[in-house]
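Suppose you are handed a protein chain with no further information: no name, no annotation, nothing but its sequence. What can you learn? This example shows the usual starting point.
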Amino acid sequence: MNNYTPGRPVAGRRTFLFGSAGALGAVLLGTTGVLAGCGSDTAARTAASGPPRPGGRLRTVIAGRSASADVLDPHQAGSSAGGAVSKNVWDKLVAYNNDLTLRYRLAESIEPNADGSQWRIKLRPGVVFSDGSPLTARDVLWSFQRMLDPAKKSSGDLSAVDMSRTRTEGDLVLAVQMKTPLADFGSVLAGWYCYIVKDGTGAIDGSVLPVGTGPFALVKWSPGDRTLLRRNEKYWGGQVFLDEVEIIQIAETEARVNAFLSGEADVVHEISYLQARNLSGDGDITVVTPPAGLMGAFQMRVDTAPFDDVRVRQAMRLAVDRQAMVDSVYYGYAELGNDIYGKGAPFYNDALPQRAYDPQRARELLRAAGKENLTVTLPTADGFPGMLESATLFAEQAKAAGITIKLESVPADTYFSQVSGKAALSHIGWWNYSLDYFYGQTMTSDAPSNGTGWKRPGWDAKFAQARAAMDPARRATLYRELQQELWDEGGYILHSFAKRPDAARIHVGGVRDGVPGTDDWANYATTWLAEQ
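A reasonable first move is to predict its three-dimensional structure. Written in structure tokens, the prediction is:
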């Protein structure tokens, strides 16, 4: 799913002007390190001095959704704020480390049979929910059933699971049967929606406070505005220092930093790149920069004119100067994109030639397609860092190819729910996941977030083969072929992989420098506040 769904400004918030206009970045990834003051192997950074101290309320500001579109349910929440709430209230069986290897969480082990047609999940003993009830395999079974509800966006995550033949084996083991073999079930279980909720959980809409196994418990949820969490005294994963966490939603990137600079928040997520450069010289602020970048792209719907002609799609890809994008929009906090997802992920095809800026060849392709002097519309908004700047620069670069890109300003708080993937040309940004997970969410004919309209039965069949290949070499070959087809004919103009910085006040310790989409980003289990 697209995880860059912005929210609206907090009601009644004043606007504080922040210096020069920010060059906001595309979507990005993080790193692994050591928790400050904690004997853990997870990533963290700290600016506060002295040992971690308990107590206090942390205030964080992060992109979210409008009140009408905001969702609390972890099996449906699609915004950055929704993801932050989910990972602090609930937990997963396994989660991604920053290098996309797996970290065991509620699961003690996840083991396949010889051909990947069945997986056996053994739970960590002694875990309880925040209401004191023990975690059992029945909770996992219920969570799977709930995620596979076709009315939920999350149904694509576990589509290979055959629930009719999946069974519990005592309190701590679940035998999961697959409809088709799956070679890497863990990478799917680490995906965005795959949280474990309590057996029997119904609607999660704030009308009843839900229970979870995460470091915090929900106290209050105000859609599109803010969420209040309180320390879960029964948390299985070690000491939690903070008494409370307040997660504040603000859609626009500049407004988030303004709120942080005005003292309304202790931590700000998803700041722009110019802002990061400026704040890095402030001795009272720590800028936390992940070591690798997330996908920043425009997407063309391949089933909608004029992008239903592959020559037009190829021309559009040749009309963007990626190096200029990295230098001018991201101030060097990025690497070049090459029109396929997943740089740094297992099986990413880095052998493909780097697509270059070639406006003359783009003109030739458009002439051959009968689309010379093409005019297209790109809706844009200040929905995530780099969005407005990348659109503006792309429009300027495309002129050399005879392409006119008309920018249409739309509200940030509804961009990803109402515009992205629906307009013929739009922005898209994804956090970093395995190719198994990403393709299952976006590229198969029935994927729940297929924003390019890519529907190829042959591609679907090869993807199924890749997912089922227990031999890593065979999987690598199939994934290279899948990516070659997407590089040749797909709908993404993936121009960059940009590192999205966060910032924290100097009195905040234990801030994890995690990759969005991984276990460490916006996870406050190890965060603490020094005395001021």
